């Protein structure tokens, strides 16, 4: 049985997942932060800063910090609301409250017991669900499904697919509410017939490639890297050379792009040639989701 964690000075909304990476947590966290601001609240983000060297707690400064220091996701979150990177989640939540946040949105941390969550909303990729249902390294689960469900307050299915529908059915059988949404690209018409070399170091790179194809891009070449991949000078030189030889447009995700900024050398050269393919979480029943959250958070 998981022990209760420390109670923070303000409500904690944890946006987590059952599996390792690639479910759409960060886009949903961004959307929920914007929604909270729209409703008159002052949210702040709390992240461990995976891939960064900073232990924190420290507030992310997009003009000063790099992904090497604070991780890639916090740089994206800080574009919407104050963001604290902290290995110690309790200290991070306290700092956000001291800075005036009246809602802490945790991007990830569902399995971390140190901080009591007011609401835990678990995001599931509709196309992948929980994979083969096994725990890592045999499968994608962080822990057995039956041991995780009791700590979830609701489930959010991101995108369509039978695997996601199966998780939704399991959650509903346990009495959990299920919400749905999709990841939608900005300016999809810009990509029609564009021949691209697409590369990504995220949890679900194939979803990124499919999204490009869905808006009419011709993905002539694709390169997969591990989630949070720290691009080397050689990686960058190779990508630029490959795209140049084939006459392809280089394109990647927002999360990958922030790992290439402000670093000089071949990384900067790659960044300056990049087209970025941003996506955002669309929530058809956003008012219903907000009402459900607000009843439990405030």
From TrEMBL:
It comes from Rhodopseudomonas julia. CDD domains: SIMIBI (cd01983). Pfam families: LpxK (PF02606). Keywords: ATP-binding, Kinase, Lipid A biosynthesis, Lipid biosynthesis, Lipid metabolism, Nucleotide-binding, Transferase. ATP binds at residues 19-26. It comes from the Bacteria. The gene is lpxK. The keyword Lipid biosynthesis applies. This is Tetraacyldisaccharide 4'-kinase. Pathway: Glycolipid biosynthesis; lipid IV(A) biosynthesis; lipid IV(A) from (3R)-3-hydroxytetradecanoyl-[acyl-carrier-protein] and UDP-N-acetyl-alpha-D-glucosamine: step 6/6. One of its GO terms (molecular function) is lipid-A 4'-kinase activity. Belongs to the LpxK family. Transfers the gamma-phosphate of ATP to the 4'-position of a tetraacyldisaccharide 1-phosphate intermediate (termed DS-1-P) to form tetraacyldisaccharide 1,4'-bis-phosphate (lipid IVA). The keyword Transmembrane helix does not apply. It is an enzyme of class 2 (transferase). It catalyses: a lipid A disaccharide + ATP = a lipid IVA + ADP + H(+). NCBIfam families: lpxK. InterPro entries: LpxK, P-loop_NTPase. Its EC number is 2.7.1.130.
């Amino acid at each position: 049985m998981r022990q209760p964690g420390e109670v923070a000075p303000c409500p904690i909304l944890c946006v987590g997942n059952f599996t390792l990476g690639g479910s759409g947590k960060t886009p949903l966290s961004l959307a929920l932060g914007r929604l909270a601001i729209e409703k008159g609240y002052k949210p702040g983000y709390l992240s461990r800063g995976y891939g960064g060297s900073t232990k924190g707690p420290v507030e992310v400064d997009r003009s000063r910090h790099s992904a090497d220091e604070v991780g890639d996701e916090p740089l994206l979150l800080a574009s919407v609301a104050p963001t604290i990177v902290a290995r110690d989640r309790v200290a991070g939540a306290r700092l956000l409250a001291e800075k005036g946040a009246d809602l802490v949105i945790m991007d990830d941390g569902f399995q971390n017991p140190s901080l009591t969550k007011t609401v835990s909303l678990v995001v599931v990729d509709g196309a992948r669900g929980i994979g083969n249902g096994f725990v890592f390294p045999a499968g994608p689960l962080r822990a057995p499904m039956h041991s995780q469900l009791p700590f979830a307050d609701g489930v959010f299915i991101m995108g369509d697919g039978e695997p996601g529908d199966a998780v939704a059915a399991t959650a509903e059988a346990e009495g959990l509410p299920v919400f749905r949404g999709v990841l939608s690209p900005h300016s999809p018409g810009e990509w029609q017939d564009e021949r691209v070399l697409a590369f990504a170091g995220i949890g679900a790179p194939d979803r990124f490639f499919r999204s490009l194809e869905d808006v009419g891009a011709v993905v002539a070449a694709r390169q997969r890297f591990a989630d949070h991949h720290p691009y080397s000078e050689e990686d960058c030189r190779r990508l630029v050379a490959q795209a140049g030889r084939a006459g392809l447009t280089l394109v990647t995700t927002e999360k990958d792009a922030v790992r290439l900024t402000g670093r000089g050398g071949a990384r900067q050269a790659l960044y300056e040639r990049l087209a970025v393919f941003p996506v955002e979480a669309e929530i058809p029943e956003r008012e219903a989701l907000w009402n459900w959250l607000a009843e439990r958070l405030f």
